[in-house]
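Mods, move this if it's the wrong board.
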Amino acid sequence: MKNKIRKLDKLLKYNKSFVEGKKYEKYETSKDPDKKIVILSCMDTRLTDLLPKSMNLKNGDAKIIKNAGATIMHPFGSIMRSIIVAIYEFEVDEVLIVGHYGCGMCNLNTEDLLNKILQRGIPAETVTTLSNAGINILKFLHGFESVEESIQDSVSLVKNHPLVPKEIIVHGLVMCPETGKIDVVVDGYK
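Not the wrong board. Structure tokens:
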């Protein structure tokens, strides 16, 4: 990496001028979400600015969690843990699960993904070891067949979770990653 500009170095150089120029001041807020909502969204880069702007959210309005596909894979995994913490520690009373059309996790070719993993140098023995430990790597990497069904499944998981109070409202939404238009899949008020 002698002549290659390292990404971290560029980020830190910008960060230094950001702090010295006090550009952070316009983002100052508390850790508590003003609108008392938590959003689980896909990690798709097109949603980074588009999602909050399309919902009229500013810094400090919501807790935003991102992962591949905006899916909750395990009822006691880190995503659900974050939602539960938001409910009890930050008084969140509404949860929004926001997927998007054209998601890369929809119909993801897990065999192809596994081949990429192996091509990048992860030994086949590692996959075998995981399999022998009871981990189905293809199931672990699998996405979903329908963004709407995936959103419905995640909404149901949150709504029916034993640690989530019954009065918590859970919505399921799908966004167009080009325009920001939001379609309601599950209206939590109904």
